[in-house]
Amino acid sequence: MTAKSRVLVVDDEVAILRFLKPALEANGYEMSSTATVADAVKRIAAEAPDIVLLDLGLADGDGKDVIRRVREWSDVPVIVLSAREREAEKIESLDLGADDYVNKPFNVGELMARMRTALRHRMQRNAETPVLRVGGLEIDAVRHRAIRSGVELKLTPKEFELLSFLAKNAGRVLTHRQILAAVWGVAHTADTQYLRVYIGQLRQKIEDRADDPQIILTEPGVGYRISES
Amino acid sequence: MAESDGLRASPDALLSLANKESRGRLKIFLGAAPGVGKTYAMLTAARSEIVGGRDVVAGLVETHGRRETGQLLDGFEVLPRKPIIYRNQVMHEFDLDAARARKPNLLLVDEYAHTNVPGSRHPKRWQDIDELLRAGIDVWTTLNIQHLESLNDVVQKISKVRVRETVPDKVFDQADEVVLVDLPPDELLKRLAEGKVYVQDTAARAVENFFKPQNLTALRELAMRRAAERVDASLIERMQAQAIEGPWAAGERILACIGPDPMSPAVVRAAKRLADLMDAPWIAVTVERPGASLGPAARRRVDDAMKLAESLGAETQILSSVDLPAELLRYAKFENVTQVVVGRSRGGFLNELFRRSLPHELVRRTQDIAIHLIAGGADGPTPPKWLPQERISLRPLQFIYATLTVAAALGVSEVLTKLTPIPNLSMVFMVSVLVSAINFGVWPAVYASVLSFFAYNFFFIPPLYDFTIAEPYELLALVIFLVVAIVASAMAGRVRDQVKVSASRVRAMRRLYEFTRRLSGIATRDGIAEGAAGEIHASLTRPVVVLLGQDDDLALVAAWPPEDTLDPAAMTAARWAFNHAEPAGADTGTLPIIPWYFVPLRIGDKTLGVIGVAKDQSAPPFDSESRALLDTLSEQAAAALERATLASEMIRARTATETERVRNTLLASISHDFRTPLSSILGAATSLLSYGDKIDAVAKTDLLTQIKQESEGLDAMVRNLLAITRIDAGALELRRDWIDLREIVERVVSAARRRGASQRIVVNMPSDLPLVRADAALAEQAIGNIVANALVHTPPDTHLMIDAHVSSLGVAVRVTDNGPGIPSDMLVHVFDRFVKGRDTRELRDGGQGVGLGLAIAKGIMDAHGGSITVESPVDGQPGARFVMLFPREDTSA
């Protein structure tokens, strides 16, 4: 990391900014902050930060509006800072295109890890490599093959499609709805039981232990994500 | 009556069958005369039920010392009788409560028509049995045909014995089974001769009259016919229930006309018999002459006849009109009556002559209604009818006026004769008679007639100044005077009556309207009960109580004149009325010795309570007008009560929702306000833990400071939450001590500065500030909350002034800021809980975030007996000022 990554923190609580600043700076980020929706959108457009930390409850409106408006022209990683009990809001933000979320109150170390993942994921997406490598898997999108430790996995077309969609978005939390829409089509966005069955089958084939998954991780009540490492 | 119309579809029949199923079943052993063996037959039948394994108890069986009967009773469980003391004698009566407590499957109770000793719950045994049936107990009983109400006068005619103990036909008709116990007259007479028939000593005189073969034959026929009618009726009921086409009644309807004459009971019974024969519904009506008030005896006769009709199953109706026949016919047409039963009293020769009697009028005016005339009995005088009855007590003043009128006529006549000779001076006197008749009523008019006649005769008929009547035609003047007096006063009286009636109707309507309007304005049950009690008392001028149902029991809610207890006996009657939704107490069949008349407050099939009206036994029963009024008022009260109940239920539901909403808001805001400092603490701590080596010393200190401050904030918040809980529970304990408010303010200000208040805080406390007695910790919390609130709501470049003001009331601490102030619509709510300002900044005192800070400050000040007020703007300048008054306390205290 040669140049310092720039972080825009959108939060109207001074106390949060107060401890985030030294922590972010210690991790080599350059932090700027704003407290309103309107200003956040403007700043993202003008400053083009590398990553955005977004609180949903802002003084002049809903933080989700920031995602909605920014996603029209930018794929800057957005990490949502949200209270644990507001599940529906989190899912909505993810559906709108947020990359990840962190529950308040949060551990700063965890936040830094999520930020790193999101940044790396963005670079990977930009690379557009035909072969994806995640969690010891090698996924060849062109030949429709998945290889684990040199052995080709026997996957049905749907399983492969599901795995490659997750892998393409490695590190990012994908909601049930997003996965269903991408793999099964928008008509099936409510059929989460399909997803559960296929994820189960997929885990049997790719995980060392299906009951303790390391590659496809469950985000309870929200969706799934493929870990990057 | 439409409900029992023969053309009615079957639901009613099904309903009545269904009612019978939940009730106990009644079986009557019917006999023509004493001694035919009813009790014997009942016991024999009951024995076989016992053999069949049924739980049979003999509630009360009269063996009259007969051996065969006594033997039959062996093996029965016999209920002990209840001793009741009446007029210093111990009477042994049937024990209704014991029977209900024992609750056998089948209970035998002899003598259906028996009259209970005064003081029992019901005056009649058939009412006891009705209660048993309602309790689901099957009852068998015995009855002689002469005790049946509608046959009462028929039997009297046959046997010349008046039977006082009667059973309403209604309850007889409701019996599920009637067993005719028959014995040919010859055998009965033989048994009588053998002494096997029990005859009460008192009736001994009548025995020889009663037990004559022709009497017995007639009674036997009556009994058989009655039993046969019953078979018919129950057959029809079953056919209807099963939707079988049958011999429906031809739509006959019978109208019994009841008046104050002694004929009325006979008319009622005749109508009932007719109705039974035709299987037709029947209506008993009485027509009241508006404004006319009957004498107490006549009033009682009408009421008794109406009650009799009701007990015989008639629908009753009170009509009101001046023209009796016209009103009757109008009503008859309206109700499609086909048969009218009227009494024809003897006497009234003139009426007969001029065909002016009611039956004549009815016959004259109608074509399609059959008129049944019941010939008058000999008993009781009939009031003369040809003269309009004077209903207003004679007032001497009216006679004086009449005299003056005649004197005036005399004067006028004298003047006229002086001026010119007039042949017919009697006309002038006629005017005086007319004036008296119109203004003063019939008797003053008659008096004026006689007076005029004499004056005329004395002063103007030769020989003058002499009463001698020279020619018989002179008497003609008197006759004409009298006729004019009577006719004119009758007509004028009628008009007066009508005016009076319409006026009283208007009054009644207005009263009812007022009552309804007043009740509609009252929202509470108690208020409505009070209003109803007062209104009914005003209308009936008798003490009134209102009892309302509360948790399955009745509670006295209102009374007029005020009263807070009701004696237990009256309470029993009230409960009975409440539970059975029927009137009880005085004038009713249930507990009539209670000096209260209780009517249920019903709406739909719900009974909300009862209204009781005091009624001494000596007082005359309520006339129909009062009862109708009471019914209307109680209906209105019930409707108002129902409305109030619904309204309060709605409010309760709304309050519950509101409480739930407040609780949710509180939870959400508390969790949010806890989470923010927790986020800071966790964030700062984890930053230090993970990246402590990469953070410079200044930043490190800042993070640690943040942890400390947020922890203090949390602590303040927890303290405030605890305080509000304690204020709510009333458990705020004050540890009062003499404290110096200057110290407290200093501590508050330095704490605020420590927390980073950027506003300029000016403290201006007088150095000679008196000490106040207060709880130091709580006072600090209150002032601290006010200061924190001010700091949160003002921009950084403003300033805050804290000063104190000493007055006779105490020491007032004033916190004044020059910030934006508080909007006027918020001003009244600032001390409410969970009310937050709109521009809350991040510098917060613990409680403030939840919207509790000011509420707690107010709670604390209230607990100290002090006060807290707010004004904004201050002296015309923007800003807000909170004033906390610590009350002055005697140093000696």
Topology readout:
The complex is a heterodimer of chains A (229) and B (893).
Chain A (H helix, E strand, L loop, with lengths): L4 E6 L3 H13 L2 E6 L2 H11 L3 E5 L1 E2 L2 E2 H8 L7 E6 L3 H10 L3 E5 L3 H20 L3 E4 L2 E4 L4 E4 L2 E2 L4 H12 L5 E2 H8 L8 H15 L9 E4 L3 E4 L3
Helix pairs in contact in A: 2-3, 6-8
Chain B lengths: L10 H12 L3 E6 L6 H14 L4 E5 L6 H6 L4 E2 L3 E5 L2 E5 L2 H7 L3 E4 L15 H10 L3 E7 L7 H8 L9 H6 L2 E5 L3 H9 L10 H7 L2 H29 L12 E5 L5 H15 L3 E7 L7 H16 L3 E6 L3 H11 L4 E6 L4 H6 L3 H8 L4 E6 L20 H24 L6 H15 L1 H19 L13 H47 L4 H16 L3 E7 L2 E8 L7 H13 L3 E2 L10 E8 L2 E9 L9 H68 L5 H32 L7 E4 L1 H14 L5 E5 L7 E4 H17 L6 E8 L3 E8 L6 H4 L25 H11 L3 E5 L8 E8 L6
Parallel strand pairs in B: 1-7, 1-8, 2-3, 2-6, 6-7, 9-10, 9-12, 10-11, 12-13, 20-22
Antiparallel strand pairs in B: 4-5, 14-15, 14-18, 16-17, 17-18, 19-21, 22-23, 23-25, 24-25
Care to give the gist of this entry?
With 229 residues, chain A is an alpha/beta fold. Chain A has 8 helices and 14 strands.
